[in-house]
Amino acid sequence: MSDIITLKILCEELKIDPREAREKLRAAVSDAKANPELAKARKPRTPWQWVRDTAAAKEARKLLSNTE
Questions:
Q1: Which one of 16, 17, 61, 64 has the lowest number of neighbouring Cβ atoms within 10 Å?
Q2: Which residues contact 41 (CB under 8 A, 6 or more apart)?
Q3: Where are the beta strands (DSSP E) in 1-68?
Q4: How far apart are CA 15 and CA 65, in angstroms?
Q5: Between the CA of residue 33 and those of 2, 12, 40, what are the distances in Å?
Q6: In this model, does residue 37 exceed pLDDT 60?
Q7: DSSP conformational letter for 39
Q8: Which positions ≥6 away from 3 have C-beta within 8 Å?
Q9: For residue 1, is pLDDT > 80?
């Protein structure tokens, strides 16, 4: 079975609020040119989760680790 990383796990690792993380991810997915892998991996009405070490997971980690 593939190793899945969920938004909850990612938020715990990065010590960020899940609500803020979801807001950032929603905004990022709507801009497919800036975040193509994240936009391709997103399926509506499903939990935020990715297969570990994929391009989409790396894009999500990079997006969420940027503090603004």
A1: 17
A2: 50, 54, 56
A3: 4-6, 49-51
A4: 9
A5: 27, 28, 11
A6: yes
A7: H
A8: 51, 52, 53
A9: no
Helix (H) or strand (E) holding 5: strand 4-6
What pLDDT does residue 67 have?
Answer: 59
59 within 8 A of 12, measured Cβ to Cβ: no
The pLDDT > 90 percentage for the chain reads: 93
How far apart CA 66 and CA 68 sit, in angstroms, is 6
Terminal alpha carbon distance of the chain: 36
Confirm if 23 and 16 have CB atoms less than 8 A apart: no
In the chain, the amino acid numbered 48 is: W
